[in-house]
Amino acid sequence: MKVLMFGWEFPPHILGGLGTASYGLTKGLSVQPDMDITFCLPKPWGDEDKSFLNIIPMDCVPVVWYDMNRDYLAERLGNRMSPELYYDMRNHIYADFRYMHTNDLGCIEFSGRYPDNLYEEINNYSIVAGVVARQQQFDIIHAHDWLTYPAGIYAKQLSGAPLVIHVHATDFDRSRGQVNPTVYKIEKDGMDHADCIMCVSELTRQTVINQYHQHPDKCIAMHNAVYPLPQRIQELVAQRKPFHEKKEKIVTFLGRITMQKGPEYFVEAARLVIERSRNIRFCMAGSGDMMNAMIELAARKGISHRFHFPGFMKGDQVYEAFRDSDVYVMPSVSEPFGISPLEAMQCGVPSVISKQSGCGEILDKCIKTDYWDIHSMADAIYSLCHYDALHDYLSEEGKKEVNNITWEKVGERIRNCYDRLLNS
Fold first, then answer.
1. Would you say 29 and 37 are in contact if contact means Cβ atoms under 8 Å apart?
2. Within 13 Å, how many C-alpha atoms sit on residue 175's CB side?
3. Model pLDDT, residue 174
4. Helix (H, G, I), strand (E, B) or coil at 139
5. What is the mean pLDDT of the chain?
6. Residue 242: which residues within 8 A CB-CB, separation 6 or more?
7. Residue 366 pLDDT > 50, yes or no?
8. Could you count the other beta carbons within 10 Å of the beta carbon of residue 277?
């Protein structure tokens, strides 16, 4: 089975959970013996793991002027005929590449990130997807997150292949309900054109059904998973100092410091814990538009001497943080899934997560509180830092639980969905 996938991130160059999930999902799916995955990225960096899939760099795909009817085209475009003009008469898509950032080979340039002109890059990506869809042979299309939905739609229109979209988050999650109408339109358009909508949790599935008015039958909860830790990471994590020997405990928040992640509730809970105990430090690892505000909040609360802001972490740095942590906290206001608690528990770090997170649907060996209930969150943190038996129990049992949540199982479920779509 040949799958054409559209994505925006892929390890080791990731800016959030989307890249991590894309890697795990594709690798788990590739275990299927007849699976052939082609993954399109705006701008790969060259050091991605291509051992189990083919990566197409969209910034290296020449965009060709498509001449189906020169007379019609000349009339439509006012005799402005040049290789810089593109018109696809079958889908009524027109673009003038003189106003796009192209290189000498006629390829559209992409940042590979989330630039200020993100909507322009999304549009350009979908145009290149049309070229790719004509060149590649595939049975099914799989588009990850809203940035690639237009590309998936265009590929479906050109090929007639079924379209699966993967909802890793919605704008309702990212904005606390203050939805960007442009993003909402792109998201809903993708859902309306999709033959199957895979949601990373039942929480997200209900959002898709109720806020985007999608039929429940084509919406499926497809929870994320984690991959086994490589040997070098196991050895790194094994360097952890025994919990009962540590004079100071470390409580960690690791993720984007943005409104969706509820960082202010972590700071407020930390204040309550510090009022009761002086042997606990708090680490807020990550970056985001609320980082400076959180530094100022910690200062106003008089706890900055117990707070650390190491900045964005990636790769081994993440596991170094888990190695040194005694408790992990994810106080997200609205978390479609949330892979980081699984990664922390995989390293033996007990986790406190908000009840408003999708991963809570498949995790039992952790503590769940409402994101706004800073008193319950503080009690959970304090207990895990002071009661060895509770800490050790959730450390061991949490690790066992997460080790059974594998991407291979997710891959099997996705393959079954593919088969149903193609058979129908």
1. yes
2. 10
3. 84
4. coil
5. 90
6. none
7. yes
8. 13
Within 139-230, where are the H helices? Answer: 149-159, 171-175, 181-193, 202-211
| DSSP codes, 12-51 | TB-SSHHHHHHHHHHHHHTTSTT-EEEEEESS--S-S--S
For residue 144 the two structure tokens come to 């990850």
Candidates 155, 148, 112; CA nearest to 12 is 112
Q: Residue 227 gets which letter from DSSP?
A: P
Eight-state DSSP code of residue 64: P
* DSSP code for 243: G
Looking up tokens 């909040």 gives 297
> Residue 335 gets which letter from DSSP?
B
**pLDDT value for 101:** 56
Asked whether residue 140 carries a pLDDT value surpassing 90, the answer given is: yes
Distance CA 141, CA 152 (A): 7
- Coil, helix or strand at residue 329: strand
- The answer to which of 33-37, 87-91, 263-267, 291-295 has the lowest mean pLDDT is 87-91
Question: Is 121's pLDDT higher than 80?
Answer: yes
